[in-house]
Amino acid sequence: MVRFAIFVNPLETLYDYERWAIRILLAVMILFGIGIAGHTLDIENPLSEAVYTYFLDSILNESSGDSGYNYVNTASYGIGLALFVVSLSGLLRIAGIDGSDAMLIALLPWVLWAPLGEVIEDAGLFSASFAPWFVSPGVHFQTAAWVVLAGLIGHKVSNGTIETEAEKNAATRHFSAFLIAAQASIYGMSVLSSDNVEILSEAYDREVMLIIAMFGVTAPYWLAGSYVERFDHIHRIVYSTGVGGSIVLFGMLAGFAIGRETSEMTAWPIVIVFAVPILVCYVLYSFGKDAAEESLKLGYTPGVLPPGVTESDYLESKTPLGEKIDELRKKAVLASPAVLLPVGGQIGDGIATWIGIDYFGYTEKHVISSMVTDVLDTSLTFTILKVGIAGVICWFYSQAIFEYRQQHLRVLIALCLMVVGMAPALRNVFRLTLGV
C-alpha cells in the first residue's frame, strides 16, 4: 500500500489571516456538502436550493460554454478564489514547497491545459457524462485536482524511501508518464465514445489524436536533460505532467481541426492575441532586466525580502544598500514571470474578447464583463479595462514588499491573475481559430 505523508517544517507557522481563510473555506465546504446531501436525500431545505440554484444547476445543465454566471456565484467565486490563494500559500509554506518563480513556471502548462479542455467541450467532443467537468469554473477544480495529485507524488519521491538522485529522477519521469497516460486514457475514451465524434466519423482523425497522445505520454522522457532539470522533483513532476497532458488534449483538438473545412477556421485572431501581449512583455522585460540582474548580484530577489527580514525592518532600514535595493526593486520586478505572465494574460484576454464579440458575434456570459461591454455597446471597453488591470498589476508588484515567508502568496496571486486572464484568453482565441 502506498502512503502519502506530508512532511512539514516544524519551525513554520501559519499567519492569523491564513488560519481564518482555512477555517472559512472549510466551513463553506461543509455547508456545500450538506446542501448536496440534502438534495440527494430529497430533503427540501433553503441551503440545498441555494447550492443548486446558484451553482450546480448552471454547471450541470450547461453545454458548450461557461456555466451560467450570476451575481451570486460570480461574487462567491471571486471571494472563494481569494480565500483559496491565502490558504494554499500557508499550507505550501509549512509543507516546505519551494515558493520561488520556479513554482509559477511549473504551473504554467496547467494554465494551458484548462482552456484546451474547455475548447474540446465547446466543440462537443466529450461524451455527455464528461462535458460538465470541463465547464468553467468547474474545469479549474479538476485542474487543481491533477496538480495536487502530481504534487503529492512529487513530494513522496522527494521525501520518501528513494535514496539516490538518479533513482528519484527516474521515478519522476515514470510517475509523470503514468499520470499523462491516465489522462490520455480517460479523456481519449470519452472523446472516442461521444455522439458527436461518431457523427463526424471520417472527419475526425483518430490516428492523429493517437500519435500526438503518444508524444504527450513520452514528454517526461524527452524533457529529461533540458531546463526541466533545474526544477526540484515536486515542480518537475507537476510541470512534466502539465506539458504532457496539454499535448494529449491538443491532439484531441488536432484530430477535430484536420476534418474542418478551411472556411470554418480563421488564423489571424491567434496572431494578434499572441503578438501584442508578447510585444508588451518584451518591452517590460527589457525595461527591468538590468535592474533585476543587478539586484540578484547583490543577493536580493526582486520584490522578496531575505530570510529573517520583516517588512517593518526593511521599511525602517535607511542604509545605502537598502535604498539601492529599493530603487532597483521597482524596475526589477517588471522582468519577473510573476508580472510578465499575468500582464500578458490580461491584455490577451481583452483583445480576444474584443475580436470574438465585435467581429465574430460571440456573446459575453460573465455578468461583470457583460456590464462593461454594454457601457459603449462595444467590447472594446472591456479591452481597455483589461489593459488598465495590466497596469495595476505592474504598479502593485512594483510597490509590494513580500517577506521571504510570503513567497508562495506572491506566486499564487500571479497564478490567480493568470487563471482569470491568460486562461480565458487562450480558450477564446482557440475557439475563434477553430470556429466553435
How confident overall, as mean pLDDT?
A: 91
Structural class: mainly alpha
Outline type: globular
Rg value = 23 Å
Q: Describe it for me?
A:
There is one protein chain. The chain has about 425 residues and is mainly α. The protein has three domains: about 15-95, no CATH class; about 100-260, no CATH class; about 270-435, no CATH class. It has 18 helices and no strands. The protein has helices at about 15-40, 45-60, 70-95, 100-120, 140-160, 165-190, 195-200, 205-215, 220, 235-260, 270-295, 310-315, 320-330, 335-360, 365-375, 380-400, 405-420, 420-435. α3 runs antiparallel to α17 and α4 runs parallel beside α18. It is globular, with a radius of gyration of 23 Å. The two termini are about 45 Å apart. The model has no long low-confidence stretch (mean pLDDT about 90).
Question: Topology, please?
Answer:
Elements: H1 16-40, H2 46-60, H3 71-94, H4 101-122, H5 138-159, H6 165-192, H7 195-200, H8 206-217, H9 219-222, H10 233-258, H11 268-297, H12 311-316, H13 320-332, H14 337-360, H15 367-374, H16 380-399, H17 407-419, H18 422-434
State the main characteristics.
3 domains; 18 helices
Concise summary:
The chain has 436 residues and is mainly α.
